[in-house]
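--- STAGE predict ---
source: upstream dedup step, 1 unique chain passed
mode: sequence only
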Amino acid sequence: MASLDKSSVKKVVLAYSGGLDTSIILRWLQDVYQCEIVTFTADLGQGEELEPARAKAEMMGAKEIFIDDLREEFVSDYVFPMFRANALYEGVYLLGTSIARPLIAKRQIEIARMTGADAVCHGATGKGNDQVRFELGYYALQPDIKVISPWREWDLTSRNKLIDFAERHQIPIAKDKRGEAPFSVDANLLHISAEGKVLEDPADEAPDYVYSRTVDPVDAPDAPTTVEIEFEKGDAIAIDGQHLSPAALLTRLNELGGANGVGRLDMVENRFVGMKSRGIYETPGGTVLLPAHRAMESITLDREATHLKDELMPRYAKLIYNGFWFSPEREMLQALIDKSQERVTGKVRLKLYKGSVSVIGRESDHSLYSMDHVTFEEDDVYDQHDAEGFIKLNALRLRLEAMRDSQ
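--- STAGE serialize ---
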């Protein structure tokens, strides 16, 4: 692909955290592209004070500054639809980073339209998945948008070069940023991840200081915590009888899960760009929510509907991981998934204990579970003789094959 004509960019919306890297990008854009800069900082529940980002952006000459609280939209329109699918990438990853990127991309495009910007910019590196996720989102929503990816353009290829650039341009550097960071972090309301540096060798156990949202399961309370989650049409709406907004509910599940050491994951995953990477993930609330949702489905969802969902789930999860949230195939799968959730309503009780989550009860007015049919006692609704013909019909092809092979 031909490089972007720098003189053609008049105004760019930068995804801006206020940290060192994106502050360097802000100044680099001013120097290299000589265009107006609009900064956009998203509050996705990462747990950081975001107002300092505004002051820093003003100091560095940003013309327009957006700081948006997207926590409710993030959970209701992205996290919850994904959890209706029970999505897990490669069997274990709850997609905490992946699911945040399409919302950031969508909001950047919205701001570009509001401000008349003709370009957007992200701070993802050229080795990871996020560059793909951001840019697929941009192009799906605004096909003619200009995209700037500094890490694929500049020569600031080392930490020393970044620090030197910051010092030359009088960009404030926090004391803890001068030394080599022990690992890279991404956080939002669903999870926090850690990658790189001290974690790069998958043979080495992650140091205790990597974990910030969960207590060590060994140090978790010696008594289990029981929690009841109420669902309506596949989405959690209440905890222990208290109705909560989507973001407040996930926050509460994070607190309960984290206090009991629930939600730690050490995995080596296959990135979309082709390499493997080792990541440490903490997703306490999601790790409680997933088995709760599956338990709710277990009594309200038909067998074949359940099995179809399970067959489609890896494809759905892969689409999210690879950045295709706004693709027609993801939207088609979402329609099927949402249809399946029409009667996934009721309550599930769980026990949290030293890193584990156990379902201990489930009930629903829409339950398909029939005590009359499954009882081991005498019943009047099921004729056990019917099973004989059922078995013989299913065995017919097996018997025919065995008869042929025995000749």
